[in-house]
Amino acid sequence: MSELPEFKVDRVFDAPRELVWKAWTDPEILHRWYGPNIETVIHKFELKPGGVWLNEMKMDAGSDFSKVTFQEVTPPEKLVWHHSPSDSDWNIISSPMMKDWPRVLLTTVTFEELEGKTSVSLSQIPMDATEAEINCFAAVMDNMKHGWGSGYSIIDEILVELQK
């Protein structure tokens, strides 16, 4: 495959950039919307280049663990991280939930001020992926919009709270 598939979702939030940035970078807020309708536990959150975010999503069938390693943190403009499935000891593994899911996604999130509102652009691209992983990622990209969209709806509610 010559060009990697890229998942993209853009959204404008009705809040200043600093508040939207806070919703993405304050673990006390982040756990409320990341993984909507699932209990999300943030075990560690080091918001700096090389820092890690250790995340657990608790579901009826058990927990789904992921490890994020921040590559770039430019407040309040940009976050770049490597996102990987992990085991409960935070070792990067193949996804136990989806055969052929990429072991690493390059995730880039940008925040742009728009006269009191904030445009957020998220991009995810598989890194160092096999052909099977690339195909798996490409096949589920449309479904990923639903998960992010549900989380973004929760962010809308949180931003209203934060602006009171």
Descriptive account of the structure:
The chain is of the alpha+beta class and 164 residues long. The protein has one domain: Alpha-D-Glucose-1,6-Bisphosphate, Chain A, domain 4 (2-Layer Sandwich), CATH 3.30.530.20. The protein has 3 helices and 7 strands. It has helices spanning 17-25, 27-33, 131-162; strands at residues 7-13, 39-45, 52-59, 62-74, 78-86, 105-114, 117-126. A 7-stranded antiparallel β-sheet has the order 1-7-6-5-4-3-2. A hairpin with a 3-residue loop joins β4 and β5 (78-86). The radius of gyration is 16 Å and the shape is globular. The model has no long low-confidence stretch (mean pLDDT 95).
Quaternary organization? single chain
> Any guess at the CATH architecture?
2-Layer Sandwich
- Give the name of the CATH superfamily: START domain
Order of helices and strands: EHHEEEEEEH
Strands in their spatial order, largest beta sheet: 1-7-6-5-4-3-2
Structural class comes to alpha+beta
- When the domains are counted, the total is 1
Biggest sheet details: 7 strands, antiparallel
Distance between the termini: 49 Å
Please tell me the overall pLDDT. Answer: 95
**Rg (CA only):** 16 Å
Number of helices: 3
CATH C-level class: Alpha Beta
How many DSSP-defined strands?
7
Shape: globular
Low-confidence stretches: none
Q: Which range does the strand content fall in?
A: 35-45%
Fold-level CATH name: Alpha-D-Glucose-1,6-Bisphosphate, Chain A, domain 4
What's the helical proportion of residues? 25-40%
